[in-house]
């Protein structure tokens, strides 16, 4: 085998280190524990594992999340969550006892104030819904470092598009670039926003699957 040119070798290792650093940053996101707990809850519910469901509920409570009340739906009409998974500890606790009737009250359960919510609102979550093959749009305001994730219920495949603007002319997109047509069970990203202006973040979630699904939006 011929030796690689020194310049090429340097670039190869530089790129490899850069990719590793990006992965490390993604895994060290402040909201990662919330993402993990929501994924664990989804998987436990899909498996019908009561012990694992209780653990995910306990994890959500211990992490401390609060309702993402500033997240506003921009759709003409808001579809019902009834029949779908709600990503909060009360819903998980009910399922762990075998009470599947909570699915019929998902809309009500999604508005329950979480017992484990933090006083300072460190992490925000909100369960939302999108029909099969369609998309839904939400918006909220933010400054500085932003971490954002969506986790779909079991079987859900989603893609995330993000558009940020402000009154000073800031206009940036932070769209998914991986498996955008096929979708993935969960998505996450982080980015920096101006700190001297209020920025409007528009989040669009696309359901790439063949079934309606709920999903949770997670933010710092």
Summarize the structure.
The chain is an alpha+beta fold and 220 residues long.
Number of helical stretches of at least 4 residues: 5
Tell me the fraction of residues in β-strands, as a range: 25-35%
Average pLDDT reading: 86
Main beta sheet strand tally, sense and closure: 5 strands, mixed
What do these coordinates show?
The protein has 220 residues and is an alpha+beta fold. It has helices spanning 6-27, 32-47, 50-63, 89-96, 106-109, and strands spanning 66-67, 72-73, 124-130, 135-142, 145-152, 158-165, 171-173, 186-192, 199-207, 213-219. The chain has a five-stranded mixed sheet with strand order 1-3-10-5-8, covered by helices on one side. Strands 2-4-9-6-7 form a five-stranded antiparallel sheet, with no helix packed on it. Helix 2 runs antiparallel to helix 3 and helix 3 packs antiparallel against helix 4. It is globular. Mean pLDDT is 86; it is low at 1-26 and 114-119.
What's the topology here?
Layout: H1 6-27, H2 32-47, H3 50-63, E1 66-67, E2 72-73, H4 89-96, H5 106-109, E3 124-130, E4 135-142, E5 145-152, E6 158-165, E7 171-173, E8 186-192, E9 199-207, E10 213-219
Parallel strand pairs: 1-3
Antiparallel strand pairs: 2-4, 3-10, 4-9, 5-8, 5-10, 6-7, 6-9
């Amino acid at each position: 085998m011929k030796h690689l040119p020194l310049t090429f070798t340097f670039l190869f290792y530089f790129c490899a280190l850069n990719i590793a650093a990006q992965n490390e940053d993604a895994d060290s996101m402040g909201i990662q524990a919330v993402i993990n707990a929501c994924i664990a809850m989804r998987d436990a519910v899909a498996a019908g594992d009561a012990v694992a469901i209780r653990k995910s509920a306990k994890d959500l409570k211990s992490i401390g999340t609060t309702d993402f009340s500033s997240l506003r739906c921009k759709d003409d009409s808001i579809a019902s969550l009834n029949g779908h998974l709600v990503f909060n500890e009360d819903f998980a606790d009910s399922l762990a006892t075998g009470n599947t009737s909570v699915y019929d009250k998902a809309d009500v359960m999604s508005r329950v104030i979480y017992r484990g919510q933090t006083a300072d609102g460190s992490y925000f979550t909100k369960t939302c819904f999108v029909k099969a093959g369609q998309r839904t749009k939400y918006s909220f305001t933010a400054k500085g470092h932003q971490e954002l994730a969506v986790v779909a219920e079991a079987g859900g495949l989603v893609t995330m598009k993000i558009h940020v603007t402000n009154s000073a002319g800031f206009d940036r997109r932070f769209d998914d670039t991986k498996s955008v047509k096929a979708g993935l069970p969960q998505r996450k990203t982080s980015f920096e926003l101006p700190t001297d202006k209020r920025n409007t973040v528009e989040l669009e979630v696309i359901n790439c699957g063949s079934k309606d699904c709920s999903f949770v939006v997670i933010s710092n």
